[in-house]
Amino acid sequence: MFKANCHCNAVQIEVAELPTKAIECNCSICRRYGALWSYYTRDQVKLLAAPDALSFYSWGDRTIEFWHCRHCGCLTHYESTDKQAQSRFALNSRMLPLDVMAALPIRHFDGADSWKYLD
What we know:
Layout: E1 2-5, E2 11-15, E3 22-25, H1 30-33, E4 37-41, E5 45-49, E6 54-57, E7 64-69, E8 75-80, E9 88-92, H2 98-103, E10 106-109
Parallel strand pairs: 3-10
Antiparallel strand pairs: 1-2, 2-5, 4-9, 6-7, 7-8, 8-9
């Protein structure tokens, strides 16, 4: 089991397997957040946080929620609003331990224009 957590440790996310890569997206929100996304399905992660520890932001068609810790402000993950077992759960890999995060290959995704990988 591998654990990711926010700065104050109020939000923890457990995954059984480490991600194989992280995605850096340049869309209007991801470039501002500076996140490195690693993708799972909702049933592959265990989110450990008190109900009042998290808050989300959603915009546009409101199909994705960007979650952050209400205490320290760290962006921890995003997920789809449908919350099904196989729904996408994107872990902000910057919440992983530094040695794990540093070892991840990073792919660059053009979410601002072409919707293609740039590498």
